Amino acid sequence: MIRVVVTGSTGAVGRETCVGLAKAGYEVIGLDRRSSNPPAIGIDLRTVDLAVTDLRAQLEGVDVVVHLAAGVTAGDSGSDLGRDRLVVVERLLAAASTSGVKHLVFRSSALVYGAWPDNPVPLTEDAPVRPCPDFAFAVHRARMEELATAWANESADRTLTVLRNAVTVAEERPGGLATVVGAAASIRSDEGEPLGQFLHSDDLASAAVCAVQSRYHGPLNVAPDGWIGVEVMAELGGPGPRLRLPGPLAALVTRVLWKLGLSPAPPGFFPYSVHPWVVANDRIRGLGWEPTHSNEEAYVAGHEPGLLDRMDAQDRQQISLTVAGVLVLTMGWLLVRLAKRPRESGRAPYDAKDGP
After folding, report:
1. For the residues 284-299, what does the mean pLDDT come to?
2. CATH says 3-334 is which class?
3. What are the domain boundaries of the chain?
């Protein structure tokens, strides 16, 4: 029996991946820092920390590794962020080499393609990997792909499947990236109309199982058929304040809201809210995979009802107008402060010798 290790096995995707592999006849070992009851008979769940555990012992006799454990999250920022998490990937790849693992299934993200004005719609797996440099999450995923590719190239008998999935959501739990996308959509730039793709966690899990079964070598985009526009996202997402601003002002508002802790969307995500980065799923469909949820269904499934959803239409409208007004006033105040700054900075510096 083929033995498969799944990292991140207690998450929504990891649990369903373990179940799917067990049903397909594989011997499944789940690794995660969090403890959990086995989701099905025949699954060996182990509570381990990939950063400190002897991974060679965990991978002994293992044929396939499905790496789903999280690294840098969508709300993280900073150019040096994630180095320690890349070390975890390096440890896992080194252990896989020593243990004789032949197939690695690696979860990346469609964001590694970057959001650029010249992106085709949709992007195929042949598109270059060029993440927006200020968005740490995408840069981190691209670097992880490089490490995994180097591992695969060390031996001709190794297979690497890279899953470049769309924004993934679970039932009533949108996840970090979906939350960032939703927050970014509330401040729209007039430079473009973003398109969205939303993947249900169950469909990403079935894609991981498909990758193990097919032993496909190369990248696979994972997304439902088609995509949805920002107006549909706004309608499905429920009530909330939304502003449409000139590009530079929209970028400024995004930075200010992030610094004030009023938005989970880091400034580096801004290009992804303007330019297209939706992907085609023809290649993985050719392997027999089919999505069970549309973009709309996944988006709604991941929408956790909030306070505004429980209000009547009049109250929601009043709150939305009030919040939008506060944002406009705040931005006006900030612009005035920025306009005054050059004059203030032109004053002669204070010298203690001059006295008070």
Report:
1. 96
2. alpha beta
3. 3-334
